[in-house]
Amino acid sequence: MASTFFTAFDVPNSLDLKHHHPHHQIPFTSRRRTKKSPFFYCNSSKSPPKQQVPDLSEEPKKQNPSLADQLQTLSTTILSDTPQKPTQLLTKPKSIWVNPTKPRPSVLNLQRQQRTSYSHNPQIRDLRLFSKKLNECDNNQDSFLKILEEIPHPPTRQNALLVLNSLKPWEKTLLFFNWLKTQDSFPMETIFYNVAMKSLRFGRQFQLIEDLAVEMIDNGIPLDNITYSTIITCAKRSNLFDKAVEWFERMYKTGLMPDEVTYSAVLDVYAKLGKVEEVMSLYERGRASGWTPDAIAFAVLAKMFGEAGDYDGIRYVLQEMKSLEVKPNLVVFNTLLEAMGKAGKPGLARGLFEEMVAAGVSPDAKTLTSLVKIYGKARWARDALDLWQRMKSNGWPMDFILYNTLLSMCADLGLQEEAEKLFDDMKRSDNCKPDSWSYTAMLNIYGSGGNVGKAMTLFDQMSKENVAINVMGCTCLIQCLGRAKRIDDLVMVFETSLIKGIRPDDRLCGCLLSVVSYCETGDDLDKVIDCLQEANPRLVSFVKLLEQKKLGFEKVKDEFKEILNNTEVEARRPFCNCLIDICRKRNLDERAHELLYLGTMYGLYPGLHTKTPDEWRLNVRSLSVGAAHTAFEEWVGTLSEMVNRQESLPELLSASTGAGTHKYSQGLANAFESQVNKLSAPFRQSEEKPGVFVASREDIVSWVRSKV
């Protein structure tokens, strides 16, 4: 559908769309913009004003822009590596019509294929010693074939199977299997291929397995349930899910019904592909055939729904297990806990854990790690620390991952005392001494709390104990030293990290850029700039570019886009925030407004403006102080113009800075309040909602008219 473009400033939509004007127009600034500056909007609900607006471009106005022109405009607002939206998953399969007069055909064999039984072999001792010699020989064909000449007994069918099944490395299994085929002592049956494929599956050699399967088909050797199950499970382990589906469909075409082992494996394959409808269709058809899923099959379903964050699906799995009286084992409980965490249900996860303990199932380290992550994400610090006490009193297993997860949670919540106790506990432990990530979590805690002395002591301790510092620990320490204005120590830490092989990433560069944004002009600033120059020269060049007042907006836009395209997605918004702060620090307010416009156009600030019929809100909690001030100035300027043009406003206008749930977090509220007072704007802190500033329509109108 073609979009309609108007050369009018559509003010009611301007609060969330004002930054979307085409790239060849003048950037939005609240103080410098005139009423004659053109702005373009798509699909406006309002008709354009009748007065003639002068066209700033030299080209004649096109009534119907071509598709190429429209795409050219669109391409300027798109960055590379844009994350795709996750596909919406359906938890219910499509309805399948079933003829009620005919029995529903079975989709699986309820009897597992019987394994071949072996009779007693008096030569077994000699053959096992020979197999051991084969396993221990050099892993090359010449050595292997030389030892084969010493085989103690002729390779009969039973002897060959015993040796083939005793070989551990898949390479030697394949060598022995190929040697057997050259002997022509007996015909190669399905069981020989199955044993060889099983060994190859341990080595995840899917291509070799598939080649053997094709060889069986060419030689007329039948593939049984074990063959297909081995092929499918190897493809699954090798992450070749499409191949697994291909062989499963081929199995049905041959008329062979999969047993429940193969069926469960295929369920897992479809689940990993995100094909929820196919999984549920297979599950329901299997149940209709009389299949009783085991705990592993339910673990597959729980993991699938957990990945999708589908709580209804998780509840369906629990109900099915209860109705079939299938008792979950430790694997199922762990899968269900992970699913509850991804679905954002910490309370239900806690209840499930208590149910698990009451059922007599002892949690392992993976169980406890999942639960700690859930509590940390929900910011349930007390529950997580209570769980730690239960771990110690009950003697539950703890490993590196669990300890580090607890430390990371303490870092996120600012629990310094608890983290120090955990860290000391690790030092006293025999099996879980602190590693690099443990020290990083402690550096994060001390850095967030501004405890520079303890952070530097810990850094020195790492050097003495030969604990390697990683880029995250270096970033935390540099951030802490930058806030404390200890620039010489900052430079020392940065140079030491480079000597130890740390490669600065975008997060570390963003940290240095942040220090530049609040560092005063002088030697200290030059030292930080030198560090940033070594980490990211192009970023330093762009900072210097921003200071050139005669530089055009188009040049700034092109350079900024190039920098963002070469930056990790999660670091793009912090980069933009810091650059705006630098401009505000150096009184480059117009550049700050341009960068905010570009950041909004490139999608770095989604949800900056939200609108309902009764309230318009400016959301600045993801912005830095300078960026929040800039956004507020633009917003207030837009509201003022609307009042002057006598356009309608909602009953309530608000700005949200966020309350800050971290112990050491001060949020934007104080800095934002000072900016409100500076502009004498009629916004006041809400008594009901912390971190929210509100103003009524009447207050805004009265304030704007009083300024005039």
What does this molecule look like?
The protein is mainly alpha-helical and 708 residues long. It is 59% helix and 4% strand. It has helices at 14-17, 67-75, 124-136, 141-148, 157-166, 170-183, 190-202, 206-218, 225-237, 241-253, 260-272, 276-288, 295-307, 311-323, 330-342, 346-358, 365-377, 381-394, 400-413, 416-428, 436-448, 452-464, 471-483, 487-499, 506-518, 523-535, 537-546, 553-565, 569-585, 589-601, 625-644, 669-679, 697-707; strands at residues 5-7, 40-42, 609-611, 615-619, 652-656, 684-685, 692-696. Strands 3-4-5-7-6 form a five-stranded mixed beta sheet. A two-stranded antiparallel sheet has the order 1-2. Strand 6 (684-685) and strand 7 (692-696) form a beta hairpin. Helix 6 (170-183) packs antiparallel against helix 7 (190-202), helix 19 runs parallel beside helix 21 (436-448) and helix 26 packs across helix 27 (537-546). The radius of gyration is 33 Å and the shape is elongated. The two termini are 43 Å apart. Residues 1-62, 82-103 and 661-665 have low confidence and may be disordered.
Secondary structure blueprint with pairings:
Blueprint: E1 5-7, H1 14-17, E2 40-42, H2 67-75, H3 124-136, H4 141-148, H5 157-166, H6 170-183, H7 190-202, H8 206-218, H9 225-237, H10 241-253, H11 260-272, H12 276-288, H13 295-307, H14 311-323, H15 330-342, H16 346-358, H17 365-377, H18 381-394, H19 400-413, H20 416-428, H21 436-448, H22 452-464, H23 471-483, H24 487-499, H25 506-518, H26 523-535, H27 537-546, H28 553-565, H29 569-585, H30 589-601, E3 609-611, E4 615-619, H31 625-644, E5 652-656, H32 669-679, E6 684-685, E7 692-696, H33 697-707
Parallel strand pairs: 4-5
Antiparallel strand pairs: 1-2, 3-4, 5-7, 6-7
Helix pairs in contact: 3-5, 6-7, 7-8, 7-9, 8-9, 9-10, 9-11, 10-11, 11-12, 11-13, 13-14, 13-15, 15-16, 15-17, 17-18, 17-19, 18-19, 19-20, 19-21, 20-21, 21-22, 21-23, 23-24, 23-25, 24-26, 25-26, 25-29, 26-27, 27-28, 29-30, 29-31, 30-31, 31-33
Domain Smr: 615-698
PPR repeats: 224-258, 259-293, 294-328, 329-363, 364-398, 399-433, 435-469
Keywords: Repeat
